[in-house]
Amino acid sequence: KVAVAAVSSLLLVAMVVALMYNGRGDDAGGGGVDVAASQKAMVTIDTLCSSTDYKKACVDTLRDSGNSTSDPKELMEIAFRATMDRIAAAGRNSSVLREVQRDPRGREAVDACAELAERAVADLNRTFEKFSKEFSEFDLTNADEVVGDLKIWLSGAVTYQETCLDGFEGVSGDAGDRMRDLLTLSMQMSSNALAMMTGMQSILSSFSSSSSSAAALGSRRRRLLSEKDDLPKLNIMKPDLIVAKDGSGDFKTINEALFKVPENSEKTFVLYIKEGIYEEQVKINSSFTNLLVVGDGPLKTRITGKLNFVNGTTTYQSATVAVHGDRFTAMDVGFENAAGPEGHQAVALRVSADLAVFYNCHMDGYQDTLYAHTYRQFYRDCTISGTIDYIFGDAAALFQGCTMVVRKPLANQYCIVTAQGRKDVHQPTGLVLQNCSVVGDPAYYPVMDVNKAYLARPWKLYSRAVIMESYIDRIIQPDGYLEWNGTFALDTLFYTEFNNRGPGADKSRRLKWTGIKELTGKRMKRFTGDDFIDGSRWTKHNKMKIPYKGGFV
């Protein structure tokens, strides 16, 4: 068995030794121990930072630490700690920035930054803890799984910092610029850690692909793909708590029930919400792990709110339901933001939880309906409706068998189905629509030639959206995509369509941006469930047997 941490250290040490040996020449043996140690540390630092995008930030941070170690693992810890300290400092400074904010939305943005800083630090911390675990816990057969976890958590740290800055959009004053200054180095270092992990993944994959145990693992995964999809069997899951608006359950409101949900649960806890319209803003905290929320159907059990940007709420804070607890599952529930198109950004559901599953749910709103914010997410047989950027965020999110409904917007608005927010080229994130349907609400068809609809536009520099094996109705414009702001991201985005059908699936008149790709089936495989989100490992974690396809449909 070989630890991920040990492998990375050995590889780095080997490179360092080779560099030092090749550079030593005939003058070896001279100089003091301290000088040799210092030189060795500098070579190790240069080697460690060589694969990063912000090399100067990496080198300066490690050299300025005052530690002369040449141990790559210790240097990685120094880098992680320095990054966490920077983010924490930004969070602390947010209280100072809040005092000078006259704009209510500015104060809310600063408050959000304090929360987001804590979440970014938590992601970096759990990444390093897993990276540093005893080598006996890992072997090469699960190297991809381990590094996949590390990359998605590091990506979360990057996203949380970017989300903090997003909150200052439309806010007067210089608070946004000041916060960006506070976060610049930590964002660069977070990106660097992600780059290092990406390089490590390539090396480990080459090792594991040649081992017999890896072949056995591949065989196991193929068996998983051949399993017949079963429908969920709710009768085997007895509710632990019941919410009923009519008083027939344990509680009348969802928020009351959450006080009784156990924290950091290792087993599934079932919260059953009976039929009714629940006018609440609900937050599933990160301590509520393995929570399963079940309703009576997405048109019967509905959670609704109306917080929105126009009324002074940031997009991040506008969510009717916000999910932070890992391994969260919802089925047969409707999520709604009823602010209407006049409210502009108004989120019905924000998912900031890893390994989250949604089955037979509805997410209804207008602009920014579903905020697939961070980590790995799976949506099956769901319906998402909206107008502008109504599926957005920086998660690694897979949608299978879902229906994306374009609604009638305001008179002067276009409609865009997705606006993916991948900021860093190393992030393993994107929005993948597989075997889905992109259609219009009945009220939209009469205005489709005026209020035109598009598949995607690039919210961030490396925006990534994949639409495969899906039905695309005639509502989608022939050119397919819409720019965000002039030429921004047109060369760096990644958009592709594969084996789609329907009158809107004709690619002959699609835009010819550099970032719009044409891929073969072999290259498209990396966007199927098992390759993109490692879904066979976790989508059925609560034994609900939610339908899932690991490969092509």
Automatic annotation (TrEMBL):
Q: Does the keyword Disulfide bond apply?
A: yes
Q: Supply one GO molecular-function term.
A: pectinesterase activity
Say which domain of life the source belongs to.
Eukaryota
Q: Which InterPro entries match?
A: Invertase/methylesterase_inhib, Pectin_lyas_fold, Pectin_lyase_fold/virulence, Pectinesterase_Asp_AS, Pectinesterase_cat, Pectinesterase_inhib_dom
Query: Does the entry feature the keyword Glycoprotein, yes or no?
Result: yes
The catalytic activity of this protein is classed by the Enzyme Commission as: 3.1.1.11
| Keywords, sorted A to Z | Aspartyl esterase, Cell wall, Cell wall biogenesis/degradation, Disulfide bond, Glycoprotein, Hydrolase, Secreted, Signal
Query: Which residue ranges does the record assign to the Pectinesterase inhibitor domain?
Result: 40-196
Q: Give the signal sequence positions.
A: 1-25
Positions of the catalytic residues: 389
Q: Which pathway is this protein engaged in?
A: Glycan metabolism; pectin degradation; 2-dehydro-3-deoxy-D-gluconate from pectin: step 1/5
Subcellular localization, as worded in the UniProt entry: Secreted, Cell wall
Please give the family membership noted in the entry: In the C-terminal section; belongs to the pectinesterase family.
| General function of this protein | Acts in the modification of cell walls via demethylesterification of cell wall pectin.
What name has this protein been given in UniProt? Answer: Pectinesterase
